[in-house]
Specification:
The chain has five helices and seven strands, in the order E-E-E-H-E-H-E-H-H-H-E-E. With 189 residues, the protein is of the alpha/beta class. 12% of the residues are buried.
Length: 189
């Protein structure tokens, strides 16, 4: 049932959520206002709760006094991070599974994917695990900024990982004949 204010109600209780976001992010401040308007059109009242950056961590990870948190997230793409971020074993107070998502089906597929030596079976289990996760929707990804990087043509990167360009920085090099003065710092004579 929708009230006179346009907010849906169940047993007289309005459908409302509070979203916390850092005041330091102009993008998230603006996007929160847009979300508030869009949710209002669906009959949900979204209360905005901007927080100073220094207090954001304690509020989100410590007291957990929020319904939704508008955050930046850069998880490691490895399977260990998937267990850490979404596995039931991490859905504990103070644990890394922020939403405290827990699913036996997800855990079973993830465990099977990580323990098999059959690549095709592992892929299928990962696919099934992420299908469960997507269907349960413990989080909503609103956008992802595209980042661009450039390096001087003198530099020979060993390899560049899309998730961590600096991962193999110790193996990058510059051919001796192309080095300028600053490239020689620490190389001896």
């Amino acid at each position: 049932k929708v009230g006179a204010d346009g907010v849906r109600r169940k047993n007289g209780r309005p459908l409302e959520l509070t979203i916390v976001y850092p005041t330091s992010s102009v993008t998230r401040v603006r996007a929160s206002v847009i979300l508030q308007d869009q949710f209002a059109r669906l009959g949900l009242r979204l209360k905005l709760d901007p927080i100073e950056p220094n207090a954001m961590g304690e509020r989100v990870f410590g007291s957990r006094k929020w319904d939704a948190a508008f955050m930046v997230w850069h998880p490691d793409p490895g399977s260990s991070a998937v267990v850490q971020n979404w596995g039931s074993s991490s859905a504990i107070p103070g644990g890394p599974n922020l939403s405290r998502y827990a699913s036996r089906e997800f855990d079973a597929h993830l465990d099977s994917a990580r323990t098999t030596y059959d690549l095709a079976a592992a892929r299928e289990h990962f696919k099934q695990a992420f299908t469960v996760l997507n269907n349960d929707a413990p989080a909503i990804w609103l956008y992802e900024l595209r980042s661009a990087a450039g390096i001087n043509k003198r530099i020979r990167p060993a390899t560049i990982r899309p998730d961590a360009w600096w991962a193999h920085l110790d193996r990058w090099s510059i051919a001796p004949g192309q080095r300028i003065a600053r490239d020689k710092v620490g190389l001896g004579k």
